[in-house]
Amino acid sequence: MCAANTDLQHHLQQHYSAGFVTDIESDTFPAGLNETVIRQLSAKKQEPEFVLNWRLQAFQRWCKMKPPTWAQVKYAPIDFQSIAYYSSPKSLADRPKSLDDVDPELLQTYEKLGIPLHEQEMLAGVAVDAVFDSVSVATTFKDTLAKAGVIFCPISEAIQQHPELIQAYLGRVVPPGDNFYAALNAAVFSDGSFVYVPEGVRCPLELSTYFRINAANTGQFERTLIIADKGSYVSYLEGCTAPMRDENQLHAAVVELVALDDAEIKYSTVQNWYPGDEHGRGGIYNFVTKRGLCAGTRSKISWTQVETGSAITWKYPSVILRGDHAIGEFYSVAVTRNYQQADTGTKMIHVGKNTRSTILSKGISAGKSQNTYRGLVKVNPTATDARNYTQCDSLLIGDGCSANTFPYIEAGEYSGIVEHEATTSKIADEQLLYLQQRGLEPEQAVALVVNGFCKDVFEQLPMEFAVEANRLMQVSLEGCIG
Amino acid sequence: MLDIQSLAVSVANKTILKAIELTINSGEIHVLMGPNGVGKSTLTRALLGDEDYTVESGSITLAGQDLLPLSIEQRAHQGLFIAFQHPVTIPGVSNLQFYKAMVNAHRQAQHQEPLDAIELLEQVKHAAQQSGLAEDFLYRGLNDGFSGGEKKRNELLQMLLLSPRFAVVDEIDSGLDVDALKIIGQGIRHLQQQGTGFLLITHYPHWLEYLTPDQVHILVGGRIVQSGGAELADQVADHGFQAFAA
């Protein structure tokens, strides 16, 4: 039921346990961004001409764009010329052929994070791709996947080995000009994961990527592309951590999902980037564009996210429901404390007939934090009988925080049904008093109430992640009361 | 033994309880009666450690341990249980999940290993049966959508699980039907035989027919104005509180 409860005491002891720095030699570009940097980056990755051109076009567009200001977040303007756009552990200059070739220091980093990369030590059933700063360091279980015909590799490798798939799908869901950060990512993306599940294949393993920012003054711009061919199924998990640093670091990722006829993609995120300290110093700026395209009939895309980290989160995993009878889902728990700011939500764009979408968002705010749900449900005139159900619940802990809900509904089609429910509640003193009278410490009491609040979302996570999410929540909420 | 000496309690700078003296031995049932608004609930809150209730003077000890410097949960770990008049609702947290957290918090305070899931479930099922609650109830949210009677039975269930040293049962009788009163009476007797001391707070004497109180105390104007045997409850039943002047 709540496996993490017993570990609570242990986990309450720790603050941001992923905050260590790995001392490793890296090959990092000097700070700054211009065409030359992009050419160097592309050359380093031995990319085909079409990718370089795509990057350069994106860069041209980006130069003419301005950072978005509509989100409910505040931060000093970012100096994009003070960031390094590529950092790679030196030992990976020649990509390792197997885990044995990987620098032991790097492997230890992942062990410390609880993600052993050695296959024999892995929990059966999860294949891992690990991205350290700008490059993928190891992908496990490649053979098992290859037998099923599933391609799971760093996107830089896919660009070289599967250019036809890249050419067909890269930027199809999130075009470079989509928004400021998507354009930046298109220009400078360094690595990320690529997944292709062939027709009729049910991916035999959970696929997982762990992202780690290590180097200082470095942005991480990964790009993930997942294609589920007709009748296929894949579940993909993503986890993120970064060292504690006083300065802010930029993370501007793009994730594109494409589901063809009868295909299903389940994408889960546990995001625990460094959130900054209790005075609001440091932390990751998490400016991410995630979008799925339900291209085929009866296709389904489901986003589940647990967001506990980052100083600022700006993220709206969305689904374009183009195929008839397509299904889009968004399940989210976003926790903010101290001075964290989250502006997150989703967009469900109904294009096909009889398309359905569900949005379930749980925001938890503590300290001086600000937590905003922003969602758009758009029903195009073509989307007859489209249905959406949205539920947004906010939970406040203490008096210094705030929660906002901005649901936008654009329903052009009268036969559709769009429902929206929202609640805001506060953890009541009576609830805490009752639980304390039953012997629970105040922090355990808060954790239990929060756990109940998030239950519907946690149930959507794969088992392993659900446990991790629970722990994260407890650690995140440490010291929030009293 | 619960021992209360010269206890004075104020709420928002207003003195509610003045010089309460109360000694309740293990295995004894004491009843505290009084009209509305005389401070019966204030006594409960002061015992459990609610910060809004200030102890101005006096002492509270349980089995020789001074409770006043202890936090709410530390008092609970000492064996103090409060059956609430209005138990809270916590959606999404199943009763079973809550019992597990509760039982293991107590075990941890006693430096014991957490109870394994099978043992816990067995104890819970037994306690549920004694409280007259069906098993499917264990998987529902804590008091979520429960009737008044179910909430009170749930309080009994928890009390049976913890088998406390001392329990305050705060107006558990209000709004209960005869069957529920009987079951709660039986549960209290069961614990009494195991040595739990009880303070039952009520302003209706009628449910006492399922129990045999050792002493009855009448609280009026912030003081215990009279103490006696079960016959005192009968007196209240017949004539109300008018006879007991502050």
Automatic annotation (TrEMBL), chain A:
Pfam annotation, one family: SUFBD_core
Residues covered by the SUF system FeS cluster assembly SufBD core domain: 211-453
SUPFAM superfamilies the record matches: Stabilizer of iron transporter SufD (SSF101960)
Similarity comment text for this entry: Belongs to the iron-sulfur cluster assembly SufBD family.
InterPro entries registered for this protein in UniProt: Fe-S_cluster_assembly_SufBD, SUF_FeS_clus_asmbl_SufB, SUF_FeS_clus_asmbl_SufBD_core, SUF_FeS_clus_asmbl_SufBD_sf, SufBD_N
Domain named SUF system FeS cluster assembly SufBD N-terminal: residues: 144-202
Protein name per the record: Fe-S cluster assembly protein SufB
NCBIfam families reported in the protein's UniProt record: PRK11814.1, sufB
Automatic annotation (TrEMBL), chain B:
Gene3D superfamilies membership: P-loop containing nucleotide triphosphate hydrolases
Keywords: ATP-binding, Nucleotide-binding
Pfam families: ABC_tran (PF00005)
Domain ABC transporter intervals: 2-246
Source domain of life: Bacteria
Family recorded in the similarity comment: Belongs to the ABC transporter superfamily. Ycf16 family.
Name of the protein: Fe-S cluster assembly ATPase SufC
Protein source organism: Zooshikella harenae
Gene, per the UniProt record: sufC
